[in-house]
Structure formats: structure tokens, C-alpha cells
């Protein structure tokens, strides 16, 4: 399959770890130039250097994507370096506290909504501004299967994820006639540092995570990245406003 991504400029947030890092690697494998964005400096630089070591073109911009001036700066730096943004994978996020709905502190609630939802809107705001000038662009937002159904002890996370799906569909309708496609990817349980922090060496919990999906294992970050790359590719030219589930059959149950 020809993805048409060779030479394209791709911005990936949360690129220092997990799904974001896998996405950076997958885009570089298709010949794209990648701008790695993350709040974490050291591991973000590490991703960029991994990409360059594989022969790819990449640079890192430290950014807190829940902060408007950081996102504006990220897009400006991308424009200064490459002059365009063809694709964006808005992926940075946190799991946040695992408590019942009534037990969140206001601060914990705000932090999850700001990092997982406001950040996606902010990224889209500045990316779309540029894509409108180009009259082309593709955006993929990372949501979750928790954006499609309830999630016990993760109401704020699930609410932010449902909202990312709604944001994706609404924006997709607004910009499709201007050459911009916008989709979401909804991973199930993915074996990333986020999940490993939660497992924290507890084998019983790990077994539960694996058993939670009919496929009997967690996804690899690369399996999510492949879906993102495909959604950004020419092969998905008629797809917009879609929330693509990549979950080993979890939501089919
Ligand atoms: P991860 O913790 O491995 O990576 C997340 C990255 O986002 C980190 O590098 C972190 O530094 C960065 N980040 C966090 N807050 C940021 C901010 N304010 N500004 C910039 N960067 C920030 O997690 P992951 O599992 O790779 O998750 C990536 C995305 O996928 C998240 O949005 C997560 O909610 C979503 N997701 C993960 C899973 C899963 O099972 N791992 C499932 C569904 C959805």
C-alpha cells in the first residue's frame, strides 16, 4: 500500500513515550519528517535522536500542550523549520487518578480535562489555522475506548475521551470542504509506560489487563501507530469524523 506520506511534515504530541513514540517511528518509516512534541525534555530528545538514527528527519520541541502559548510556539517552530504541517497526531495525555466520580478533587479533575481535552482543542486550533492556509491536512486525535463507553474509576478520563470524540466529529464536519480530514483513534489497553505505571509489577493486574480484551493480550504501541499512519495516508482519503477502535475486540463484547 502506498501511504503517500513520503516527505510529508507530521507533528506528534506525546512523542516522548508509548503510543506517541511508536507513531513517530511509524511516520519516519514512511519517509515523513517528524516534529516530536512533549512536556518531557529528555525522553522527547531521545525520540528525536532515535528517529534520526533510523535515517529519518526529526526535531524535538518541548511543549506543554495544555498551554496555548506553548502550542502556538510548537506550530511556529514547525513552520519555521518545514513551512507546512501535513499531518498531526494529537496524542499527549495522562491517565490521572483512579477514583470514583464523587472522590475526585477539583484539582485532579481539572488536570485530566486540561491535559486530555483542552490540549487537543488547542493543538487543533493552531494546526487548523495553518492547514486552512494550505487547504489541506490530516489530523488524528488519540481518544480511547473509554471515549465510547463508561469506565469505572476513571470518569474524568472517560469524560475527556468522549469529549475528544465529539470534538473530532464536530471539527471534521466544519473543515471537510477545505481539504482537512479529522479522525480519532480509540485504543483499548496498550502496553505503554502509562499502563505499566498502573500495573506497577502487580502480575494479577497485568493478567486482568490481558484478559480484558478477547484477543488475550494488550496492544503494542506500534499496532496503534499503524492505524494512525493509515488514517493519515492517501488510502483513507474518504474517511473523516471517524473514531477508529483498535482494541483487540474489547468493545465488540
Ligand atoms: P505515555 O504515558 O506512555 O505517554 C504519554 C506522553 O504524553 C508522555 O510522553 C508524556 O510526557 C506526554 N504528556 C503528558 N502530558 C503532557 C502535556 N501536558 N504536554 C505535552 N506532553 C504531555 O502514555 P500512552 O499510553 O502512550 O498514551 C498516549 C495517549 O493514548 C494518551 O492520550 C492516552 O490517554 C491514550 N490512550 C492510552 C491507552 C493505553 O492503554 N496506554 C489506551 C487508550 C488511550
Describe this structure in words.
With 253 residues, the chain is α/β, with parallel strands linked by helices. It has a single domain (9-191, 219-246), classed as 3-Layer(aba) Sandwich (Rossmann fold). It has helices at residues 18-29, 41-53, 68-82, 106-134, 155-175, 193-199, 203-211, 221-232, and strands at residues 9-13, 33-38, 57-62, 87-90, 137-142, 180-187, 243-246. The chain has a seven-stranded parallel sheet with strand order 3-2-1-4-5-6-7, sandwiched between helices. Helix 1 packs parallel to helix 2 (41-53) and helix 3 (68-82) packs parallel to helix 4. The longest helix is centred in the middle third of the chain and has 29 residues, at 106-134. The two termini are 31 Å apart. The structure holds nicotinamide-adenine-dinucleotide (NAD). Residues 13-14, 16-20, 38-40, 63-66, 91-94, 115, 119, 142, 144, 187, 189-190, 192-195 line the site of nicotinamide-adenine-dinucleotide.
Which series of helices and strands comes N to C? EHEHEHEHEHEHHHE
Beta-strand residue fraction: 15-25%
Extract low-pLDDT stretches: none
How much is the average pLDDT?
97
Spell out which ligands are present.
nicotinamide-adenine-dinucleotide
Helical run tally: 8
Helix content: 40-55%
CATH architecture: 3-Layer(aba) Sandwich
Which topology does CATH recognise?
Rossmann fold
Task: List the SSEs and their pairings.
Blueprint: E1 9-13, H1 18-29, E2 33-38, H2 41-53, E3 57-62, H3 68-82, E4 87-90, H4 106-134, E5 137-142, H5 155-175, E6 180-187, H6 193-199, H7 203-211, H8 221-232, E7 243-246
Helix pairs in contact: 1-2, 1-8, 3-4, 4-5
The structure holds nicotinamide-adenine-dinucleotide.
Amino acid at each position: 500500500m502506498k501511504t503517500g506520506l513520503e516527505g510529508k511534515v507530521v507533528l506528534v504530541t506525546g512523542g516522548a513515550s508509548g503510543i506517541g513514540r511508536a507513531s513517530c517511528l511509524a511516520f519516519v518509516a514512511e519517509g515523513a519528517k517528524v516534529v516530536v512534541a512533549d512536556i518531557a525534555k529528555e525522553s522527547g530528545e531521545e525520540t528525536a535522536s532515535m528517529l534520526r538514527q533510523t535515517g529519518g528527519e526529526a526535531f524535538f520541541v518541548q511543549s506543554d500542550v495544555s498551554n496555548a502559548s506553548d502550542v502556538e510556539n510548537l506550530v511556529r517552530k514547525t513552520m519555521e523549520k518545514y513551512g507546512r504541517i501535513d499531518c498531526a497526531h494529537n496524542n499527549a495525555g495522562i491517565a490521572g487518578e483512579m477514583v470514583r466520580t464523587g472522590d475526585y478533587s477539583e484539582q485532579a479533575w481539572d488536570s485530566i480535562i486540561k491535559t486530555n481535552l483542552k490540549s487537543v482543542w488547542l493543538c487543533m486550533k493552531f494546526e487548523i489555522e495553518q492547514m486552512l492556509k494550505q487547504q489541506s491536512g490530516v489530523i488524528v486525535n488519540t481518544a480511547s475506548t473509554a471515549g465510547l463507553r463508561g469506565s469505572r474509576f476513571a470518569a474524568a478520563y472517560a469524560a475527556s475521551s468522549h469529549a475528544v470524540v465529539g470534538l473530532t466529529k464536530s471539527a471534521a464536519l466544519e473543515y471537510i470542504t477545505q481539504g482537512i480530514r479529522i479522525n480519532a483513534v480509540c485504543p483499548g489497553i496498550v502496553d505503554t509506560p502509562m499502563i505499566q505505571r498502573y500495573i506497577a509489577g502487580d502480575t494479577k493486574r497485568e493478567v486482568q489487563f490481558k484478559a480484558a480484551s478477547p484477543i488475550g493480550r494488550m496492544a503494542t504501541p506500534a499496532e496503534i501507530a499503524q492505524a494512525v499512519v493509515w488514517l493519515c495516508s492517501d488510502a483513507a482519503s474518504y474517511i473523516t469524523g471517524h473514531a477508529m477502535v483498535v482494541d483487540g475486540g474489547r468493545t465488540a463484547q
